[in-house]
Amino acid sequence: MQFIALTSIGIEQLLQDEITQLGASVLKLTVGSVTFESDTLTAQKICLSSRFATRIMMLIASKDTIKDKEALYNFARFQPWQEYFGPKQTFLVDFSGTNAELKNTQFAGLVVKDAIVDYFQDLYEVRPNVDKQEPNVRVVARLNRETVNLYIDYSGPSLSQRGYRTAQGKAPIKEHLAAALIKRSGWLTDITQPLYDPCCGAGTLLIEAVSMARNEAPGLEREQFAFERLPGFKEAQFLELKELLAAQVTSPNLYVIGHDVDRHVLGKAKDNCRKAGFGQIITLDQGDATKLKAVAKRPGVVISNLPYGERLGGTAELISLYRLLGQGLKQHFANWHVSMFGSDESLLKLLKLVKHKQYKFKNGPIDCLLNNYLLDEKQVQQSEAQTGLNYPASEAFGNRLKKNNQALKKWLKKDEVVAYRLYDADIPEYNVAVDVYLDHVIVYEYAPPKQIDEEVAHKRLQDVIFLTGQQLEINPDKVVVKQRKRQKGDAQYQSFAKRNESFTVTEYGAKFKVNLHDYLDTGLFLDHRLARRYIQQNSQDKRFLNLFAYTGSASVHAALGGAKSVTTVDMSKTYLDWAQENFALNNLKNARYHFEKADCLKWLEHATGQYDLIFLDPPTFSNSKRMEDAFDVQRDHIKLFTWVKNILSPTGTLLFSNNKRGFKIDQEALEALGLKAKNITDQTLSPDFNRNKNIHNSWLITYA
């Protein structure tokens, strides 16, 4: 009989070799599958023994002239279905593939289902039922152009589900892929050598390795296979086969070690090892892969499914992990073989190891690589900079960080500043901004110019991230990386993947909630620090208005400065809620503190009342759907001032700010309004922003 074994991309050759060794004749190897011929007992042996297959299906029939519904129905209608199940059993049709006429898989599946039901109705005058949850028999139909293959699911639920994994980490690999990685690592050629996984997660790699070394058929503990429900199944013969396979299990002395930095994940690994029966064989301990130590006296194999973003906080942690892991391997694992599995080749390159073999796999939908290395004397002693940077020139960035930090120390201490900008594209090739928030740091990557090679920019960024944490002595899990580019429309209000992590920073007696992860900005515009201090110092008994208020930081300063009333206007509910949280942080509560959700332009156009101090910091440009018209601060600032004049008290002051490079006030139009402007930009640039005179413009506008 003919069967097809399914697997993941990259494992096909291993599966072919395995099927051949188990006694079947391989007919064809295709992407993700191996077609073979065998008797039913051998097929059952493959279901029990295969480490690399995910499913085995038995071919019923194949036809290459299926163009439409009628042809499909007739093909399915005249198969001998009674040989595979009876009219009182339930079934399910799993259909995939389309062609010019059969464009909908659900419809095509119904055609096959109707054909099967009609077959039994004609033969037995009984219609079998469909069960979408737990059918007795699963019929599989695969359409490719005009060829349809009909199968019976022979193995049942995925063969990669061995039954020992009661829990898993955040970035698991399936058991059949883990087995393939073990096979490709070469460890099985000498199982007396140590096997070590420094990032073992839930322990899947190590459990598969031990099971393979012991020659355990992975399906021996499975409750039931689909073929056990088929007519003609011989239970006695099958039980004899299981006994034969169980007798082949060996008990070699193994030295298998797993470490993981996450105690919770390590607990899952221990549970899984116990469930697999290997609790006394696999040694598991908490350990940090960035601080490797020797684990054995003789060389062996290091293998790991290295973490990526989901198992760690983000880019900085990953870069630090890969760099330090590579250094640790060279320092403590001379003459070991190393197999590292990952999804990002640029991260694997940070190991600074020369691979001698590479295998490509799919981990679900993700393209992945297994790189094999040999840490021979040449590899261990290869010359490289101590830091292992991509570019030696990156040291200049690190030195600039150190220099800037030293230059700001006196001011930071004097003004008790805890949130500040340390670097802003000071070296053009390292086009980032670095902001410090207490013991955290944000690296903002500016979008590189088109003429800069993307890979070069990426490698420079890796160096920047690593050096930032190193120079500032900040843990990688507290280094946040974001890309800063011009935000359009509602994008400026959209959040990233929610982490809901925030903490409080202080500024001239005010407290503010900052969130470094969930939004492009943190909740506090650092360059407006001195503008906010001006507001605090000039708010006593004033009616204060804050437009485009963001998270209301200027409003908090006004309230702390003794403002008679504070009105905070922004179109974002998220930011207004944040503003009210900031007020609560500072124990500010007064009936004259108002928060209004509105399109600021529309609100200002129709505003009434009088204000003595107004802070207006509009966006440079906005075409938000929540604003009726596109706004350009250079073109429209006089319109803004016209509206502001209607609510500015006779002795009032407008503090106007914007971030447009080269902004120029239309003095003639301003004078026509009876207003005058004083440029105070230099007075609102604190020492951390003096390097970038274009960060913002600030003006005091009063009546002439």
UniProtKB/TrEMBL annotation:
PROSITE patterns: THUMP. Its main location: cytoplasm. It catalyses: guanosine(2445) in 23S rRNA + S-adenosyl-L-methionine = N(2)-methylguanosine(2445) in 23S rRNA + S-adenosyl-L-homocysteine + H(+); guanosine(2069) in 23S rRNA + S-adenosyl-L-methionine = N(2)-methylguanosine(2069) in 23S rRNA + S-adenosyl-L-homocysteine + H(+). InterPro entries: 23SrRNA_methyltr_KL, RlmKL-like_Mtase, RlmL_1st, SAM-dep_methyl-trfase, SAM-dependent_MTases_sf, THUMP_dom. SUPFAM superfamilies: S-adenosyl-L-methionine-dependent methyltransferases. One of its GO terms (cellular component) is cytoplasm. It is an enzyme of class 2 (transferase). The keyword Magnesium does not apply. One of its GO terms (molecular function) is 23S rRNA (guanine(2445)-N(2))-methyltransferase activity. Its EC number is 2.1.1.173, 2.1.1.264. Residues 42-154 form the THUMP domain. Keywords: Cytoplasm, Methyltransferase, RNA-binding, rRNA processing, S-adenosyl-L-methionine, Transferase. It is found in: Cytoplasm. It comes from the Bacteria. Belongs to the methyltransferase superfamily. RlmKL family. Specifically methylates the guanine in position 2445 (m2G2445) and the guanine in position 2069 (m7G2069) of 23S rRNA. This is Ribosomal RNA large subunit methyltransferase K/L. It comes from Pseudoalteromonas tunicata D2.
